[in-house]
Design brief:
This protein is an alpha+beta fold and 383 residues long. It has two domains: 9-171 and 339-374, Aminopeptidase (3-Layer(aba) Sandwich), CATH 3.40.630; 179-318, Aminopeptidase (3-Layer(aba) Sandwich), CATH 3.40.630.30. Helix content is 36%, strand content 23%. The chain contains eleven helices and 15 strands. It has helices at 22-26, 38-46, 90-98, 126-142, 158-163, 184-188, 193-206, 222-239, 247-257, 300-316, 349-374; strands at residues 9-13, 56-58, 61-65, 70-74, 76-79, 106-109, 122-123, 147-151, 167-177, 211-216, 261-267, 273-281, 285-293, 320-322, 336-346. The strands form two sheets. The chain has an eleven-stranded mixed β-sheet with strand order 2-5-6-8-15-9-14-13-12-11-10, with helices on both faces. The longest helix has 26 residues, at 349-374. The mean pLDDT is 94.
């Protein structure tokens, strides 16, 4: 019996997620991760956080069936730099430039400025998901780009990239796992005595003389966004040189995603906002995203970004807290090491071999680091 012909598909490169029907885009994923949703990706475009002058040119990969229905998509961008990705390939760019090549622009499949693991190939069928990867490769070859990259890929999608022959890179983040805790004290009971005392001390010290307000949904007013913008600018200027998001992005978050947002603001004794942290709520995860403080207050960062996040996750029955990239200091605060994944398509065979060799050496070092970190957690030792 002859095999059936594969279904007809049309593959294209879009000009932005905002131009795509929201229902059609969101039908391709389960809605559990807010950063691949139409609302978040669109507000980045509408606010000017991505687009002309940012180095992020929206170019979503799209697959439609014979009837014109969208059956697969990937949030993709033509990048003229490597900022805002949190998977660092600057050494690759330097090597390619020394060899006389142009590393930029490159194709980036990602949620911009968001080091959060999640689906990068939005499709119900694995065959359509693989078409997205072939489309990315075609964009690279046809436009003589150096490479394509998919960053912070959900682990269950990595086999698709491996099947397609993309190079795999592993990194480490620190996440809190909610083991069915009834309260923060219940969680503390799993830590060794010294760490338990330390966390209690930090929580007390952090809020001395402060009032912490927790806001979500319609309770978040423009004045709260004004305050959060100041906090975000302060952190962005110190960490990245300039903030990635525009002021308008925060207003659009409030309009489009307020029910998925928890905003924590600390006020001093004169009721002036002095610090804040912005969290997003997914289906089973709390995502810590932005933080800032206008004055140095010991332990307040830990309180708003880590400890209050644990409180919220326990209260809402969420399975975990993802508190952003890097940060080995999270380990002492109950956040354990977790592997994160990226995948890379290098068009030039010689450059691909060099990158593959580099990744193999990096992987061995990272495996040793992961083993060491797993032995440094603050939890009580089991006999």
């Amino acid at each position: 019996m002859a095999e059936a012909d594969p279904p007809a598909r049309t593959i294209s490169l879009g000009t932005g997620v905002a131009a795509i029907d929201a229902a059609a885009w969101d039908a391709l994923h389960d809605g559990g991760n807010p950063f691949v949703g139409h609302a978040f990706l669109t507000l980045l475009e509408q606010s000017g956080s991505v687009g002309p002058g940012t180095g992020w040119q929206a170019a979503p990969l799209l697959v439609e069936d014979a009837g014109g229905t969208l059956v697969a998509a990937a949030p993709a961008y033509l990048k003229s730099h490597s900022q805002g990705e949190y998977v660092f390939d600057h050494a690759w760019a330097d090597a390619w430039a020394r060899a006389g090549g142009d590393y930029y622009p490159k194709l980036q499949i990602a949620a911009p400025f968001t080091p959060v693991p999640g689906p990068r190939l939005l499709a119900k069928d694995s065959g359509d998901a693989l078409l997205l990867l072939r489309a990315a490769e075609a964009v690279v070859r046809q436009n003589q780009l150096s490479s394509a990259h998919a960053t912070f890929v959900a682990p269950d999608q990595m086999p698709l990239f491996e099947e397609a022959g993309w190079l795999v890179r592993r990194d480490i983040q620190f996440h809190f796992a909610n083991a069915g805790y009834r309260s923060f004290d219940d969680f503390l009971g799993t830590l060794n005595s010294a760490k338990r005392k330390q966390l209690r001390k930090e929580r007390r010290r952090a809020v001395e003389g402060l009032r912490i307000e927790e806001l979500t949904g319609a309770a978040i007013d423009p004045e709260h966004w004004d305050a959060m913008w100041l906090f975000y600018q302060d952190t962005g200027a110190r960490k990245w040189g300039h903030p990635y998001l525009t002021r308008e992005a925060f207003d659009l978050m409030g309009r489009a995603m307020a029910e998925q947002i928890i905003l924590l603001i600390a006020y001093d004794s004169e009721e002036r906002p002095v610090a804040g942290a912005l969290h997003f709520v997914g289906a089973d995860t709390l995502y810590g995203r932005y933080w800032g403080c206008l004055t140095e207050i010991p332990y307040l960062h830990f309180e708003l970004c880590y400890y209050r996040a644990i409180d919220i996750a326990i209260e809402r029955g969420l399975r975990r807290v993802e508190a952003g990239a890097q940060g080995g200091h999270k380990l002492a605060r109950g956040y354990g090491p977790v592997a994160t994944w990226s995948a890379h398509f290098i068009a030039d065979p010689g450059f691909r071999r060099a990158v593959a060799d580099y990744l193999e050496q990096e992987r061995r070092a990272e495996e040793s680091e992961m083993e060491w970190l797993e032995g440094q957690t603050p939890f009580k030792r089991k006999d």
